[in-house]
Amino acid sequence: MIKPIVTEKATKLTEKLNRYTFRVSPDANKYQIKSLVEELYGVKVVNVNTLVVRGKNKSRYTKSGLIKGKTNSYKKALITVADGQTIDFYSNI
Question: Model pTM?
Fold first, then answer.
């Protein structure tokens, strides 16, 4: 599973450093991520950095009282693409 993350911070990374952000499967390693991105988007991947984003505790007040929960943790991959190449997320909409 691979899904692009499109946020302000990720967009700034793309513009400045030619680096794209993806949400990936927690058991995927860097080699699998690199081969999948190259296959799906047809670009040359220079570098892959991964990190695990931990889930956050959330709470909200309702009529019936306080509801507590937690968001899921996930793995994020930062993909650096070769100079002159880009990935267009919106081409297949």
Answer: 0.83
